[in-house]
Design brief:
Distance between the termini: 83 Å
Largest sheet: 6 strands, mixed
Number of strands: 9
Order of helices and strands: EEHEEHEEEEEH
Shape: elongated
Oligomer: single chain
Helix content: 10-25%
Radius of gyration: 25 Å
Length: 189
């Protein structure tokens, strides 16, 4: 859990949930509170901030996350219940103006890293859910100006070798039967 002081005066940081449930893909839900965050003027400002929040470091290249894969936006009225922050009882009493940018990407290979702008007043609280069984989730982290996240290990895509294995065995059986049939015909001639 984040320390109680991490909340400050409200949600003055962006919240980034990194979801790794899907093999071979990463999904990020980055949320801004455009009602209670004094650093964000309105919903339009929140959209611009979310669009420019991250860079993706992959294979030695750094690109804006919105250039790597498209962003979609949705409005929410409650914070993510998986966030590693203490629950604020006053939030349940009223809906909030939250805007979430959704981003999904299939990286070329793990790991990838997320980097923040060199100059930004918007810190990002980032945590991970959906890691592979037996793999502990990495601890949450706060990214400030120019920070780079820890390695993000994408679940590998497991291909099912059974269909090809069965086809191979079937081919070998057919080949053996064909040779046997040919040798019987040759012997009977």
């Amino acid at each position: 859990m984040a320390p109680l002081l991490a909340l400050g005066h409200g949600m003055e940081f962006l919240q980034a949930r990194v979801r790794l449930e899907m093999p071979g893909k990463i999904r990020i839900e980055l949320t801004a509170d455009f009602e209670d965050n004094p650093l964000i003027k309105d919903e339009q400002d929140a959209r611009l901030i979310l669009t420019n929040a991250f860079f993706v470091n992959e294979g030695g290249e750094q690109r804006a996350w919105a250039d790597v894969a498209p962003l979609t936006f949705e409005k929410r009225d409650q914070p993510d219940p998986t966030a590693p922050v203490p629950e604020d009882p006053t939030w349940k009493e009223r809906p909030h103006g939250l805007l979430t940018a959704l981003w999904e990407y299939a990286p070329k290979g793990p790991p990838i890293h997320l980097a923040t702008l060199d100059r930004t007043p918007h810190d990002i609280l980032m945590w991970t859910t959906g890691t592979a069984e037996g793999t502990p989730a990495p601890p949450w982290q706060i990214l400030i100006c120019g920070d780079v996240s820890k390695d993000i290990q994408i679940r590998p895509v497991h291909t099912n070798p059974w269909p090809w294995g069965i086809a191979g065995i079937g081919f070998l059986i057919a080949l053996g039967a064909g040779k046997r049939l040919i040798s019987r015909r040759s012997a009977s001639d």
